[in-house]
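ingest -> validate -> predict -> emit
validate: passed (alphabet ok, no gaps, 338 aa)
predict: started
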Amino acid sequence: MAARITYARNEQLRTIKPGYPGNKLFGAQFANGETLYTPDFSNVFRWKFLTENPQKEEKKADTWTPEVVSCSEFLRGQDDGLVWLGHASFVLRTGGTTLLFDPLLFDSAFLKRRHPLPCRPEELVNIDLLLLSHGHRDHLDEASIRLLARQNPQLRVLSSLRMGPLLRGMAPGLPVQEAGWWQQYDLGPAAPLEMYYLPAAHWHRRGLADVNRVLWGSFLLRAQGKLIYFAADSAYAGHFEEIERQFGPIDICLVGIGAYKPTFMMQLSHTNPHEAAKAANVLRAGHVVPMHHGTFDLSDEPASEPLRTLRDVATGNMLRGELHTPAVGEVMRWPEWD
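emit:
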């Protein structure tokens, strides 16, 4: 029997896209727009046991890691700035409000950091808003959530539909505001910024029986007259054009460039460097900051390939915006960017 089709959104929040009914559900599973995507375990088996990586020796010899500098002084201060903590984790400060995106502060059995954090996890205090794009373990880490909730009593979480119960199992009492795609979070009348939850082409799974039960997406921040887009995990799809049509040119685009090989395994989950550049161009991004590379070994491409390829794209004038390739921990003074 075909799964029942329904639509979900947070009725307490404003939906900004005219006529949008909410996120489509096939039974209990969220969809990528109109289409249900369920990852096939046979692809994992094919990748791990039946496929030889043609770049195996190149990858083994490639020991590149991002440069790391301390961001401790920035964390102690009040200046506006943007700091990459590695992978998809960023700290952004604007007008005295500090935001933290998708923090992964500790190693686990399956995720071993290839470079150190640019700060001690205990230094991540005075965080106002914790933004969680989706539930995969390299973006939603239980140990990180517990620590941040403990040392930031004022912390509020902005995330996706059905994320609340998952987070309450990690940090009971942590305030969570859930949004569907094309919804604006309610930050209060005095908030110095606006925040929107927007589409991404991805999926959810943490256990055996929760496939696509929690929504995934991306974030758009409007602050100091600029639009900052955090693409999170996403394949290349039509939502980039939709976002540009809704908001116009994006000032700063934080976009993933790693974990794209083998194609049959990764193409419906992540953008490769050429796709990331295409997405940034479609968004008419003035500035591009790559992420999701160099920190963890998640796929078959050599460690230095994603950033090297994106730099070649930019050098060849195939990237519309200005490319920024910061060290991990380097403070980017984004309000000063034209």
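Residues 5-336 form a domain with the Metallo-beta-lactamase; Chain A fold (CATH 3.60.15.10).
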